[in-house]
Specification:
This protein is α+β, with helices and mostly antiparallel strands. Helices cover 35% and strands 13% of the residues. It has helices at 25-38, 56-64, 94-109, 115-120; strands spanning 4-9, 45-46, 52-54, 69-74. It is globular.
């Protein structure tokens, strides 16, 4: 499949009401601070109807940080999608290394599973 690229308003995305990650207050604060300090550094995943599959907290934080648009790369999942930051050089820019650490740390801190939501989903989580 040939990938297509378009920019749309961030408001067209629909958050997942059954997101099993409740997140944490500290994680949300860290995510907001990271977006404000370093900008966007990773993609989110949406379905064909613009419903967020992965990245609900990131979309919420981006909206809160005042971001108004999202660049959508349409693909069928057979190829990775990279976000290339032309303003950063990992070997020269301290900000690039800080973004890498912030990205990993936010993912670690902003995870709190909802047992109720997990139980309600029709998925086999033993695989994960």
């Amino acid at each position: 499949m040939k990938s297509t690229l378009r920019t749309v308003p961030l408001d067209v995305l629909v958050l997942d009401g059954n997101n099993a990650n409740k997140g944490t207050k500290r994680g949300r604060e860290m995510l907001g601070k990271s977006l404000e300090s370093y900008g966007a550094g990773r993609s989110v995943v949406v379905d064909r109807k613009n419903r967020v599959i992965a990245g609900n907290k990131t979309v919420e934080a981006a909206r809160a940080a005042g971001m108004r648009s999202i660049t959508v790369v349409e693909t069928d999942g057979s190829s990775l999608v990279a976000v290339q930051r032309g303003d950063l050089d990992l070997r020269k820019d301290k900000k690039a290394r800080e973004l890498a650490i912030a990205d990993n740390r936010v993912g670690e801190i902003d995870l709190e599973w909802s047992p109720e939501v997990l139980a309600s989903l029709d998925v086999d989580i033993k695989e994960f």
